[in-house]
Design brief:
The protein is mostly helical. It has one domain. Helix content is 72%, strand content 2%. Strand 1 and strand 2 form a beta hairpin. Helix 3 packs parallel to helix 11, helix 6 packs parallel to helix 8 and helix 7 packs parallel to helix 16.
């Protein structure tokens, strides 16, 4: 985080009102204005610039973070990787070797059936995203969906469900995504001494069953399809489109860094001070704001295990509800040209069901089990 939370001053009414207006525009315009929906990346970039300007938080560090985050967002086995280069490299691999790759996926579908195929890939990617990084999984989801012999609506359903699973699974280790990296870093001292497996111990019992349920849902939603007569889908993307998609993803990630930085005062002044039961639901804003920023503001060693657990679960679940909420959403939506409305029709209801289910589990069922 380029913005030091400890340096945020006292609440400012003007900044508060202005940021709420920006938040309203970010939530509404992509659904109401076609031009905005078709150009989410520049829109979020403009909103991010305005938010940072209103908050008076411009700094060289923030600009550098916005420029570097798309190319250095995580580390895998000590090697820094970024979403921009992964999207570009995988895009080029698919461009030059699409026939053998698509043929292998089709062959697997014919052997095990499309439902088993959907279940295996959703669960597999959900579980390994915390090991090989959410970025690598993200760039493969849409390519797999493109090969599946189902209509566009069902492909979008598969992608949204898979992105929920991948986003949740990535939270289990510090190499999965920035949210988990920041959480472990902030809890590394007293009293938690968080290490590599801290989030696995804390969240796996909730997230792993959730990923399996999402795999079952994905298998059910793709439906029964005949796979015997599958034919290789035509690859129509141009080399120029591959590069443009990588650039658009770069802009989107940079925009979210600025937007999250601009909203830091609002998070520090109000959101981080809300009781855990209410904060759980307020964290739905993770659907449009950078959840790493929210994690940096909310998570700290003074919190109880219940507060940490509920906040992180809410952030990773809500991140699947809309396109800006998580890296896999951004990448898959760019590849499949999924609009905000198309994503929201599936992501928002599914997100609310998951949020409600985990809320009941964490705040009501688990305390009763512990009590007895």
């Amino acid at each position: 985080m380029a913005i030091e939370i400890s340096k945020i001053g006292e609440p400012d009414p003007f900044v508060t009102i202005a940021l709420f207006i920006i938040l309203f525009l970010v939530l509404i315009l992509p659904f109401r204005v076609k031009k905005v929906e078709e150009n989410l990346e520049p829109f979020f970039l403009v909103m991010g610039i305005i938010a940072v300007t209103v908050s008076r938080l411009w700094s060289a560090e923030l600009v550098i973070e916005a420029l570097e985050s798309p190319v250095r967002i995580a580390e895998v086995f000590g090697i820094p990787i970024g979403i921009f280069q992964v999207v570009l490299i995988v895009g080029l691999i698919i461009y030059y070797f699409n026939r053998p790759i698509y043929s292998a996926l089709l062959s697997l579908m014919k052997k095990i059936g499309i439902r088993a195929f959907a279940f295996i890939f959703i669960v597999l990617f959900g579980l390994i995203s915390s090991i090989i990084s959410v970025i690598v999984c993200a760039v493969l989801i849409a390519e797999i969906a493109l090969v599946m012999p189902i209509d566009r609506k069902k492909k979008i359903e598969f992608i949204v469900i898979a992105c929920f699973a991948v986003g949740m699974g990535a939270a289990l280790t510090p190499v999965g995504e920035p949210l988990s990296t920041i959480a472990v870093k902030k809890l590394s001292g007293e009293p938690y001494h968080a290490g590599f497996f801290f989030l696995v111990d804390l969240l796996a019992i909730y997230i792993v069953p959730g990923i399996i349920l999402l795999g079952i849902l994905g298998a059910l939603r793709v439906g029964r399809q005949k796979v015997e007569d599958l034919t290789l889908p035509e690859y129509t993307e141009t080399l120029r489109a591959v590069f443009i998609r990588a650039v658009r993803v770069y802009v989107f990630i940079a925009a979210l860094v600025l937007l999250g930085g601009g909203f830091t005062p609002l998070i520090v002044w109000y959101i981080s001070k809300i009781p855990p039961e209410i904060l759980y639901w307020v964290n739905i804003i993770s659907a449009i704001l950078d959840n790493a920023t929210l994690t940096a503001a909310e998570i700290g060693p003074s919190l109880t295990v219940l507060q940490i657990k509920s906040a992180l679960l809410a952030l990773v679940i809500a991140g699947g509800m809309l396109i800006p909420g998580n890296i896999p959403n951004i990448v898959s939506a760019a590849r499949m040209k999924i609009t905000m409305n198309e994503w929201a029709k599936i992501g928002v209801p599914l997100g609310f069901v998951l949020m409600f289910g985990y809320f009941i589990l964490v705040f009501f069922v688990e305390p009763l089990v512990v009590k007895f």
